[in-house]
Design brief:
Structural class: mainly alpha
Strand content: under 5%
Largest sheet: 2 strands, antiparallel
Number of strands: 2
Shape: globular
Order of helices and strands: HHHHHHHHHHHHHHHHHHEHHEH
Length: 532
Amino acid sequence: MANQRKRGTGGGSSSEADSLMEKNVEYVEPGGNDVGGDGGNIALLLLLYVLQGIPLGLAASIPMILQHRHVSYKDQATFSLSFWPFSIKLLWAPLVDSVYLESVGRRKSWLVPAQYLIGGFMLLLSMKTNMLFGDDDPTVPPNVPIITSVFFALNFLAATQDIAVDGWALTILSRENVGWASTCNSVGQTAGYFLGFVVFLALESQDFCINYLGQPDSLVTLSGFLYFWGVVFCLTTTGVWLFKSEARVGKVDEKSADPDFGLVGTYKILGTIVTKPIMTSLIAVLLTCKIGFAAADSLTALKLTEYGVPKDRLALLSIPLTPVQIFLPLYISRHTSGPRPLSPFMYGYIFRLVFGLALAGLVWYTPYFRLDDGSYPFHYYLIIVIIYLVHQVFVNCMFVGVMAFFARISDSTVGGTYMTLLNTFTNLGGNWPSWVALRFVSELTWTSCLPAATVENMEEQLHLPATCYSEKDRQMCEGGGGVCEVLMDGYYIESAVLVVVGLLWARWGLPTVRRLQELPVSAWAVKYQRTQ
């Protein structure tokens, strides 16, 4: 099961579903079943969003692969940085929107090279996976810095492709069918993420393929998966480049939902929004409200994998959660359409915070469910599904409330820039606490090297380290016949401490949220004079 980034990635970091939630295309009701002449354009958008979800889902699966290879949590924290491009894409989004080759097209100028580079990176990485992940030599650990750099580049390119596709979606469809853009976004990226995460981990698992598919071995490898999608990216991009034309910029309606303020103008708008006095309080809330969830969101799935729960099983458990993630927001949105859209956020915050302790309890009791052959019974997985289903209720209460509030206060006269800025701070507010939780969980873990030898080996035992704090200490302990024993896992310390921090935050944060919610919409408007 992915860390609920998203998203959230994440990862995948805060939750991996967050990576799917950070999109900012405003939802408009599709104009009925008759799409007129836009059927081909809708199919193209759907395909582009599916391709966008592939590297996101694949990146979300890497933490579990690394955990299976026993990398440290510091290394996991390092890899979590690869998810940041989607959270900071606002930094170069104005460049993508404003600089282009008119002969190629405003969106294709960035879409085509970005997708070619994604395909090229995948093809190159497919030839180096065994070396990077230490498969050629079990004594060589995975090269986490290089892996992080490669996936950071992939996510950077995917984020750039996302900016281009989001903008193209607003002009490639006719005005009566523009609502299909959000549908293609949601369905396409979810399908791509599913292929890159759930399908890949299941077919890459030897145990799953043997026991459930009747195959003698796993059906795919990481290198084969990368090679296949690298080819698909290159072929698809070539087709779009050669056979899909783009409307000339001069022919776009001046009242388009995709206004072009120019590079300097867009950055001026961002500066105007950020410097509004009330925006300081909102940004502070967005950057700190997820601190209390950091351990639960970023570490729980990794801890379950550490205790021997197969990563493919955790991935497959995302399947029953998918309908909930689709339909639950529709129900919650009924309670966010009024003047107080943040009410579900405030209710969900406390419950989600306390429920983090339930996730810690799940990890604590996991070893007691383990059978003699190392597997886990069906009822254990059922417990996981139930716990995560309840958890998703609170996650969606917060998410839908925040998105409804953003839609309410965002000034439509500056296009999607306002919403994108708010989403940027929301995503950063989930990423940095997750990085901190991953980075310091090892330091908070109490370990001891216990001698397993007899009294006759007392002289050797004197050379054993007192703890297994570092990888060097662990190797010395095990090499000397000792056993590394965890006295207190830092995950439980972080879970308890962060819940307390979250409760303290609530004393300031929730009244602040309530105050911001009561402000009139006019207080959030941007006074910007567009240059003719």
